[in-house]
Amino acid sequence: MRALIFRRHSVSLDVYEVVEDMPAPTPGPDEVKVRVRYAALNRLDDWVRRGWRGLDLQWPHIPCSDFSGTIVEFGEKVTGWRVGQRVAANPLFWCGDCLACQRGEQNRCKRLCLLGENVRGAACEFVCVPSRNLIEIPDGYDLAKAAAASLVYVTAWHSLIEAGHLRAGEGVLVVGAAAESMSLPRRSRSMRGAALCCRKFEPEGQQALDMGADWVHDRSRDPTGPRRL
Hints:
Layout: E1 3-5, E2 17-19, E3 31-40, H1 43-50, E4 66-74, E5 86-89, E6 92-93, H2 99-102, E7 113-114, E8 126-130, E9 134-136, H3 143-147, H4 150-163, E10 173-175, H5 179-192, E11 196-199, H6 202-210, E12 216-218
Parallel strand pairs: 10-11, 11-12
Antiparallel strand pairs: 1-2, 3-4, 3-8, 4-5, 5-9, 6-7
């Protein structure tokens, strides 16, 4: 299959190359094989390409945690899904057996893997993921937008709901309107509460307002603003 790969860690983007002969994966009993339509790069991919002590990759490595596509095949134990279905996926792979998983804390799994980090990612024609990780994409929803959501939304949901225990009527202060936090105003307003956004640079601040933030503070113009909150 066709894939975007790199064969060694580097600070340079020049290590990326496109190959045509990468072996296509075969789904395991509980896995689904997806034909990738869109894949999204994010900051994690830059970190993985650069590498860090203890990161053990299978070379060549394929980047990208986030993707969307259509199901083409699945293992014999998979139920509830059909060929041709439009899907994205939670890129966190957990064992389901350790104490953390049994407590519902899959992000603390002893054998936790992340697609595109310590396992090969989705910048390729086909990717296999556990069926429990699949997210159905409704007909009519843009596959390109769906491909950009999984990893950052998992983090935002954990911050707001699982760790933050956000309740109806509560306000949210977002410090630094980056890609992940930009989703917080919209999510908190639509589900649980209002949102405030604190940002240094104007373009992202305006985008935060467009996404539902009630107020944006530009620290470059008034550094004392956060003290008044």
